[in-house]
Amino acid sequence: MPRTEQQSNDRFNGKWFWRYASPAAFYPVAGTIEKLCWFLAISLTIIGLYIGFFRAPTDATQGEVYRVIYIHVPAAWMAMVIYLAMAFWCAIGLAFGTRLSFMMSHALAPTGAIMAAISLWTGALWGRPTWGTYWVWDARLTSTLILFFLYVGYIALAAAFDDKKKGDRASALIALVGAVNVPIIYFSVQWWNTLHQGASVRPGGSSMATIMLTAMMIMAFAFWAYCIAVAMNRLRTQIIERERSAAWIQSSVRK
Question: Phi/psi at 202 (nearest 5 deg)?
């Protein structure tokens, strides 16, 4: 059988998935992804901040303070996306018993918590001149704060068990149950009367000026790349820690 046809059948039969579900197989792949994403993150951040802070015009309503969106909005998006990614990997881990899935979720959690914290902090800086206060118990702000606590709870519970497998399963329950909070955050401005403004970027169009939108989307991709790079770095560290007794570790680390 030709090699290409065999590879195609392997993917169809799930052999491709199981191959890279192995920590040993994914370790070098994670290193390649990390290097690429660091390059993209640095490059896109420089471009995005330059456009957002030096080329984009001043907002007619909010003035210069609106420029916090180039940090606030990407961080808020990533806080939600990362939590859903954690829940996904936890579900895969529980369903198939793959160690790498739980490691992936653990690698994502600290970065997700940081993104949620940045979102809350920059939101407070934005809220003070816009609303006259740093904090209100607004539906979106409150649900984002809950998201931050879910991240902290997940990290704490995973670390509370000496038996890593028990910690994986226990923390996975928090990730899966807490995932319901993500659509609440996203739709909160539609479901309730809140101070938080509605989405400026919506399917089918945007209310932002083109250059402002361009800068924000570049920064969003920069945040994506950064989060993936950091997660891959943390994943490789976890693989070394958990698989330290495996024979392949020493040769892989030397590379």
Answer: -130, 155
